[in-house]
Write a structure and sequence with these properties.
The complex is a heterodimer of chains A (203) and B (180). Chain A has helices spanning 2-29, 54-62, 181-184, and strands spanning 36-38, 41-43, 73-78, 92-97, 104-110, 135-137, 149-154, 161-164, 172-178, 195-200. By secondary structure, chain A is of the alpha+beta class. Chain A has a domain at 35-51 and 68-119 and 130-200: Domain of unknown function DUF1214, C-terminal domain (Jelly Rolls, Sandwich), CATH 2.60.120.600. In chain A, strand 1 and strand 2 form a beta hairpin. The longest helix of chain A has 28 residues, at 2-29. Chain B has a five-stranded antiparallel beta sheet with strand order 1-2-8-4-5, with helices on both faces. The longest helix of chain B has 28 residues, at 2-29. The model of chain B has no long low-confidence stretch (mean pLDDT 89). The chains are: A alpha+beta (203), B alpha+beta (180).
Chain lengths: 203, 180
């Protein structure tokens, strides 16, 4: 009798505990299905459609996300550089490459909690503090003679295009393309996205 | 010993079933999803700013820091929902979500007539009524047909720099969301 109760309890514990724990693990640590990978960048084009997979759907629901639709744009994220090393806020990076096919794009860095990395407000000697937007967009970046875009990602000011990413800990770069044929067309494999190169890390 | 192994095996099969059940139930029972947060902030058919800035935490996550966004919950059980804006900004886009946050339809200012936002969300039954005779006021509207009777519509507007902030917020405040 006691043995039967014990075995039933083991079965239930494994079923309920294991089932629930595996869902939380999958939502936190496993990427969605249908990932589109270009270089170091990953996007989930199906997330913004009715064909979203159940994992992305549960994740969006839990994080109060409202994903971009295919006519709005497509968000690429990168947690690693082109060498495969995880991106760190302490390190300096260069994001370099052709301008992606889109009406415009924005680039920003997020901390481990998914919040944009903001710099403390810059306070000129006179006047109010002027917070800088924690992102760059394609209408303001300087381009090379051949049309390429080179952006320095660093905690210290850099000449040319500079995206602030100071502090410490892991970070994610987010490149969002707006009004882009990439999100809706089948020719996703032909998209050129900039490379992420590590320049250096403080030792 | 054999019965213990049997119990563990049964437990694993049960775990797979529980995994699938929990996964499918998360969107329906989540109290932290966009719908619940919007419901806590305002009633249906009212525009709520969902983007954040230096001082304000965004209401929903995943909004581009260079964007301002506003959301409105609609209910089609009585009448279609109408969303209209009077101004234009450098870029705006609209998405219609069902209650669980699944994106049903999206478009941007290029698709809209004269770059002005004018959206009508209808159920299939209301669409049949509209097909009989389209009222003149909806001639320029983008009409979206959806099976979902409740949902969220989100307007996103690009804010190129701080100078545009006031103008973009005025655009979002000028958007009306009401039953048609």
């Amino acid at each position: 009798m006691l043995r039967a109760i014990f075995l039933t309890a083991v079965t239930l514990l494994v079923a309920v505990g294991g089932g629930a724990a595996s869902v939380w693990y999958a939502l936190d640590h496993v990427g969605g299905l249908g990932a589109l990978e270009i270089g170091a960048w990953t996007a989930y084009p199906a997330t913004g459609t009715a064909g979203v997979d159940p994992y992305s759907r549960a994740r969006a629901s839990r994080g109060a996300e409202l994903p971009l639709g295919p006519s709005e744009g497509l968000e690429f994220t990168a947690g690693r550089d082109d060498g495969g090393e995880p991106l760190r806020r302490e390190c300096d990076y260069v994001v370099e490459g052709p301008s992606p096919a889109a009406r415009f794009f924005t680039l920003h860095a997020e901390d481990a909690a998914g919040r944009p990395i903001r710099r403390a407000a810059w306070r000129p000697r006179s006047g109010e503090a002027r917070p800088r937007p924690p992102a760059l967009h394609s209408h303001e970046v300087l381009r090379e003679a051949d049309g390429r875009v080179v952006v320095a990602v660093s905690g210290m000011p850099r000449p040319g295009n500079w995206l602030y990413a100071g502090g410490s800990g892991p970070m994610t770069l987010v490149l969002a393309l707006y009004d882009t044929p990439v999100a809706s067309s089948a020719r996703v494999g032909e998209v050129g996205l900039p490379a992420i190169r590590r320049v250096g890390c403080p030792s | 010993m054999r019965s213990l192994a049997y119990a563990l095996l049964l437990g694993l099969v049960g775990a797979a079933i529980v995994h699938i059940a929990v996964l499918l139930m998360v969107p329906a029972y989540s109290e932290r999803d966009a719908w619940s947060k919007l419901a806590a902030a305002a009633g249906p058919y009212s525009i709520v700013r969902v983007s954040g800035d230096e001082t304000v935490e965004p209401l929903v996550s995943g909004i581009d820091p260079l964007f301002e966004a506003a959301a409105c919950r609609f209910d089609l059980s009585e009448a279609p929902a109408r969303l209209a804006g009077r101004e234009t900004v450098p870029f705006w886009s609209v998405s219609v979500y069902d209650r669980a946050g699944v994106n049903l339809y999206s478009f941007n200012d290029r698709t809209a007539d004269q770059g002005l936002l004018d959206l009508l969300i209808v159920t299939p039954a209301q669409m049949l009524e509209l097909r009989k005779e389209l009222p003149a006021e909806y001639e320029r509207s983008v009409i979206v047909e959806t099976e979902a009777t409740e949902g969220i519509v989100v307007v996103r507007a690009f804010r190129p720099d701080a100078e545009w902030r006031a103008e973009v917020l005025r655009f979002l405040e000028g958007v009306t969301c009401r039953p048609a």
